[in-house]
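Entry 14. Structure prediction run on the chain below.
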Amino acid sequence: MEAVFHLPESSPVHGILNEHGVPPCEDGNLIIKRIISSTANRQFLNDSPCTLNLLREAGACLVDMHGPSDHRSPDLPGEAAFPAGRLWGARPPAARLRGRVAAMAGRAPGL
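Output returned:
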């Protein structure tokens, strides 16, 4: 399995690669490759063999994973726990929609 990530110059991954002696990204492209077999697994960063821990460290800077209940995070009250959720701010748009639906249901009891 292979993936290519285009990294901005400001990405912390560049420092991680340098710190561990991994070749730098060419044109900002980080190449991640994993070979998984029944006998052994191998992983590579920019075609250089690396440890699974190094792959995890670099990967943590690339992907922001969340579970189904992360929107309930106590660190972000009233706001979604993923960056795109912050585009709409804290919950007022949804609250306004609920109010409109309730008002419409009051006018048309069969809804």
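DSSP finds three helices and four strands in the chain.
Filed with the rest of this week's runs.
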